[in-house]
């Protein structure tokens, strides 16, 4: 049996007061001390002078695997900067393999990727799949196709954790997950065995997400050959969802979802 804690967190690019928000993110993630961190909208410039994932990785001695995406000029602190806003997986376990998977796109939205990282655990090789699905309001069908494309790219005979900003409500996730025998953990206001009582959006100025009870950030757990994994959920909670008591700032427009898991090896599993 192996225990793992995982935080999935959309870091809101360089929007808002980035220079003030970044230390808040770093301090909170350092306090939570997760084994694995999935970041979405991870802002970084080519010279790494601005680097959200890098700053967070240093607080916990994490190894970073990146999928830089959506490159363009963004305004940060009043200065235009060539930058990307992509995905990052932070892990203290050595990376065995990694792969960037292009997902189906809509020209109105642009580049979407999945980042797959494999690490070694007591249950064998574990595939970590970090996602940020399309934000388009009429994009339910596209999100389903993007999620399926990411799941289909997971190596066979692997336990897998698929997590990130799905940009959809919880009831849209099981439509795909149930067909794959997945175990779903998500933030939700609805009652359920693995639901959380809080939304995953923060009421920040400048965000277009004002309905904070909505839950867009989810975690899927899969076992080898896509059967339901032998997983024990210790607990799941919404975190980084309160303003800084001094500045009043939220660290991001999203809260994080933190899960503590126990993975149990099955007989004959590929290690």
Short recap of the structure:
This protein has 4 helices and 14 strands. The chain is α+β, with helices and mostly antiparallel strands and 271 residues long.
Please, could you describe this protein's structure?
- This protein is an alpha+beta fold.
- The protein has one domain (about 1-265): 4-Layer Sandwich (Deoxyribonuclease I, Chain A), CATH 3.60.10.10.
- Helix content is about 15%, strand content about 40%.
- The chain has helices at about 20-30, 50-60, 140-150, 175; strands at about 1-10, 35-45, 65, 70-75, 80-90, 95-100, 115-120, 125-130, 160-165, 185, 195, 215-220, 230-240, 255-265.
- The strands form two sheets. Strands 1, 2, 3, 4, 5, 13 and 14 form a seven-stranded mixed sheet that branches.
- β7 (about 115-120) and β8 (about 125-130) form a beta hairpin.
- Mean pLDDT is about 85; it is low at about 185-195 and about 205-210.
Notable features of this structure?
271 residues, alpha+beta, Deoxyribonuclease I, Chain A, 7-stranded mixed beta sheet, 4 helices, globular
The parts where pLDDT drops under 50 for at least 5 residues are 186-193, 206-210
Order of helices and strands: EHEHEEEEEEHEHEEEEE
Q: What is the total tally of β strands?
A: 14
The portion of residues assigned to helices is: 10-25%
Radius of gyration: 17 Å
Mean pLDDT over the residues: 84
Category by helix and strand content? alpha+beta
CATH homology-level superfamily: Endonuclease/exonuclease/phosphatase
By CATH, the architecture is named 4-Layer Sandwich
Query: Strand share of the residues?
Result: 35-45%
Count of helix runs: 4
CATH fold naming = Deoxyribonuclease I, Chain A
Which term fits the overall shape?
Answer: globular
